[in-house]
Amino acid sequence: MGSVRPPAEAEAAGARPGDHEMAMNCKKCGACCIAPSILSAIPNMPNGKPAGVRCVNLTDRNECALFGRPERPSFCLAWPPTLELCRDSFGQAMQSIATLEERTRS
Description:
- This protein has four helices and no strands.
- By secondary structure, it is mainly alpha-helical.
- It has one domain (1-7, 20-106).
């Protein structure tokens, strides 16, 4: 199973320019910390994170416990909230990220 490419990396790999330009404030739904798979080790998850599994660094308030800290993975830094990715709900965000993961599997 491949790891989904963050939006910035997906654009570099051939996604349409502008697909992820509509920046917005984070809704704190947690989808970007649950839906994607991460193959490399991340803090507190030495074997990475499978798709659909909640990151252990995501707090009960759906905030990243590593936000603003140097140990926050570069993978996570590449996921800014955008209208296209997050859409209108947690369910829509999960579907958007799952679709992106499916399209970018290696």
